[in-house]
Structures are given as structure tokens and as C-alpha cells.
Amino acid sequence: MASYILRRILLIVPTLLGILVVNFVLTQFVPGGPIEQVIANVQGRGDVFGGFAGGQGGDAASSEMLGPGDSQYPGAQGLPPEFIEQLEREFGFDKPPLERFLSMVWDYARFDFGESYFRSIEVTELVLEKMPVSISLGLWSTLIAYLVSIPLGIRKAVNDGTSFDTWTSAVVIVAYAIPGFLFAILLLVLFAGGSYFQIFPLRGLTSDNFESLSLLGKIADYFWHIALPVTASTIAAFATLTLLTKNSFLDEIKKQYVITARAKGLSERRVLYGHVFRNAMLIIIAGFPAVFIGVFFSGSLIIETIFSLDGLGRLGFEAAVQRDYPVIFGTLYLFGLIGLLVNIVSDLMYVLVDPRIDFEKREG
Hints:
70% helix, cell membrane, mainly alpha, 2 domains, MetI-like, 0% strand, MetI-like fold
């Protein structure tokens, strides 16, 4: 097992390098960049997309300062060449692309992600500042999904084909079919002061007076704020895990060892939880890290935006809009590294749950 883990760890290096290469090459061809973003802000267009209308941001008089071919940046007409050169030096675009890429790889190997172009803060500090919000959503959503899905899936397997199984399957399928963002908006309309009830807060993870509350008050305030976002992000994972649990139990119940255990006179409860449970739950328990990362990454942007939560999802979206390359590359690098490490942890979970599994023999 040690050699298998070592090989998996060594594969992380070329995988991360591939992620950086692909994204670095893409940014060389995507229209707009941090310099165009600054030019758009200086000329009052607000964002980088205003600069691609043929350079209409400057008037005819000011455009005489630069000829039509004097700048590679759309919309830069009317700005002194020295200003553009200073921006290139500050952002590092005065160097060839290969040199910039190699420098970035060396820095990232030392976990030096640089400083955000537009926030004047280290990328690492920025990620650590936003991470608690996204971890809260991912962790609680995954835990609740497991706590609900496993008992429900087991009961559905035991009562397969009954009316209980039928109507709960209908509920699960409907829940899976509802997009997370639509369910989040529905929760806001119903319970956050939209058109009906104002039971939960509309935005944020804590109240303004959070620091002045007692310990129990802080805990209650935290769960009060996170109730709707967690519910919205749990819905899809809940449906998938329920059906997965049911199908896993049905597969195990039909096996010969279950028939033998029943023939020996063991109670149904002993057969179900003493023999079937461990084998049926192998794939579900071992997949916990992957499910958490899936919820953590996939639903964070939409949920955080709808509920005005300042987490990693919104951070990545805003960085992409602003062309804040250090934040974009830094978060991609960290997310890729976390995802790869979680895959290794998932394999270790399989071995922990069922020691009979040996990945080295399977590879051989």
C-alpha cells in the first residue's frame, strides 16, 4: 500500500503542471486581461468588456496622443505610453510568456501565489479569509446529506416495492431534478422575506452584532444564517446518496451469505446491520471525502452569490471577471491539489472500511 500511495503522490506533480499549462495558455488567447481592466476603470467604462468596441472609450482629441497602431490594448488610445509600460511592469507582462510561466511554476512549487492585482493582499491570505464560508457550506451539507440519506436508503431497500418506497422515490427524483439555484431562490421567497415569511436572514453568515452575543447566542445565530444555504446545497447530494444507499443494500441482500445468515436463524436486524451494512456501506462511507469536495466546489458559486456569502465561489467568479490572474491561478492550483489529495484519502478509506482491498495487487 505504501508504494501505491507514493506513486499516487508522485502523479500529483505532472497533473498540477498540466493544469497550470492549460490555464496559462488559455489566458494568452482569452480577450481582455488585467491591463485592459485597469484601462477600462481609468476611462470610466467600469469593466474590461467596455474596451472591445473599437476603442470608443476615448474622444478624438485625446486619441491623438497614441496612434491607432501604437498600443496592443483595445481602448488604450488617449493614455500615455508610459502609463501602459508601467502597468506591464507591475503585472509582469514586460517579460516573455515562457519566462513568466516558469517563474510562476517555481513560485507555486514553494506555495508562493503572489499578490492579488486589485486587492493588494496575498492570494494565500485571501483564500484563507474566504475558506471558512465554503467549508461551512460543504461540511454541513455533506453531513446532513449522509445523516438523512443512509437511514432513508436502508429503509427503502428493506421496503423495496412498497408504497413507502414508491412515494419516497418520487420525492427524491423531484428533489434531484430541481436545480440548486432555483431551490435556493424558492427558499428565499418563502422563508427570507420574499413574499411570504421572514423567518431566516436574507444574507451573510452572521449578524452584525455577532461579536456581542454569548457563546450559545453565536452558535444559534450561525445556524440561523446557514440554514437556508445548507438546505439549498444539500438537495442534489441528498437525492444521489439515497438512491446509491438503496441500490447498494439491495445488491448485498440478494447475495448468498445473507441467505445463509437467515437460514441460521439470525434476526433480520442482525442480518441487516451485522452483515449487510458493512459491505453495502463500503462505497458510500469511502466516498465521503469526494462527496464533500464535490459539494464544496460545485455548488459554492451559485449558493454564495444568491445568499450573499463571501466565500471561495464568489472569490473565483470575481477574479475571473476582473482578470485577477494570481487569484485565478492560485485557487485553481489549490483546488486541484486538494482534489488530488482527496482521491488518495478516498482510496485509504476503502482500505480502512474493508481491509480485503489491496490496490497494489489490483494494479499488478
